[in-house]
Design brief:
InterPro entries: BUG, Bug_dom1. Keywords: Signal. It comes from Sediminicurvatus halobius. By secondary structure, this protein is an alpha/beta fold. Strands 1, 2, 3, 4, 5, 6, 7, 8 and 9 form a 9-stranded mixed beta sheet that branches. Helix 4 packs across helix 11 and helix 6 packs across helix 14. Helix content is about 45%, strand content about 20%. It has 2 domains: about 160 residues, 3-Layer(aba) Sandwich (D-Maltodextrin-Binding Protein, domain 2), CATH 3.40.190; about 120 residues, Periplasmic binding protein-like II (D-Maltodextrin-Binding Protein, domain 2).
Length: about 325
């Protein structure tokens, strides 16, 4: 258990000091918290996405188990808007207080790469733990004439197939553009505003193909509502053993949807380590492991600590930045 001497510490404060604390901003005690005392205040997990979505659900699958290991509260705080810009502004206003944990998807990286964030450099953030690394699969309508990757690729070389994406400049768009550059395929993307609308449009026949997360598409693939063509990942995935990896054809493009957590880059390294331990303890719960398994993801390969995750998000940022430059979607 991660212990906190915070209660004893507060009991020793005099009345004047206590009054001053009450009048101070919420983060004052958190800012003064040493690694030995941590946590000294409520820990906030900040989501850029709405309640009930994938980012929120992932947090809640580990949060209760993590909360049981500390003596302070943990709560989810929603800061929506601007493609995670509102969340970034909130983190920067809180500073390196050690009590603000940011949920991350690639949306954060795209917003930073496009210069739309108060976070200007990647050393301003520090990755602490990864929750999932969800590969993407090319899917088509079950009535599509394309049954194999070879057939799909041949058709894409003759004319631009239409691809449904959630947003221009989002994960699917960038992933498709990287794959097209390697494979020589011709593509034309059509934005639908959300992943759900994107898949609905594919099933209706409005577009030829789309790129979906394994966790979100698996049930529809198993029900026969979507046809998988190839996985954009370095290996085949266990739940789709008959679906080839594009790497088998020399198209070495890995596209995944990652979810993980980071803190302000100037956070005390010892506190970063304790936050990492806290989150990993929550992810070691059977509830979280069952959540990953039910999504077709292996807990052993998806969950990762700070060393792996921090390196990954900074590499993914560079890949995203280069892709956005080629799409002429950033001046950076």
């Amino acid at each position: 258990m991660i212990h906190s001497p915070n209660v004893t510490h507060r009991a020793a404060l005099g009345a004047v000091a206590a009054a001053a604390m009450l009048a101070a901003p919420l983060t004052a005690s958190a800012q003064d918290c040493s690694a030995e005392e941590w946590p000294c205040d409520t820990i906030e997990v900040v989501s850029h996405a709405s309640a009930g979505g994938g980012t929120d659900t992932t947090i809640r699958m580990w949060l209760d188990a993590a909360r049981e290991t500390i003596d302070e509260e943990m709560r989810v705080v929603y800061k929506q808007g601007g493609g995670a810009r509102a969340a970034h502004e909130y983190m920067m206003s809180r500073g390196p207080d050690g009590h603000t944990i940011m949920a991350l998807t690639q949306t954060h990286l795209y917003t930073i790469a496009r210069g739309n964030s108060p976070i200007k450099e990647m050393d301003q953030i520090q990755g602490v733990a990864r929750a999932m690394d969800d590969p993407s699969v090319i899917v088509v309508n079950p009535d599509s004439p394309y049954d194999t990757y070879e057939e799909f690729l041949e058709a894409s070389e003759d004319q631009a197939l239409t691809w449904g994406v959630a947003q221009v400049g989002g994960t699917e768009h960038i992933g498709i553009s990287r794959w097209a550059e390697q494979s020589g395929a011709k593509t034309r993307v059509v934005p639908f505003g959300s992943g759900g609308e994107m898949i609905t449009s594919l099933r209706s026949g409005a577009v030829d193909a789309s790129l979906a997360n394994i966790s979100e598409a698996l049930a529809q693939i198993e029900e026969g509502d979507l046809k998988p063509i190839a996985v954009l990942y370095h290996d085949r995935v266990g739940d789709l053993p008959d679906t080839p990896s594009t790497y088998e054809h020399g198209h070495e493009v890995s596209v995944t949807t990652t979810r993980g957590y980071y803190v302000h880059g100037e956070t005390d390294p010892e506190i970063v380590e304790r936050i990492e331990q806290l989150i990993l303890a929550g992810m070691d719960s059977e509830r979280f492991k069952d959540y990953l398994r039910s999504s077709g993801l292996d807990p052993e390969t998806n969950v990762a600590g700070a060393d792996v995750w921090d390196k990954q998000i900074k590499e993914e940022y560079q890949v995203s930045l280069e892709a956005l430059r080629k799409l002429d979607m950033t001046d950076r």
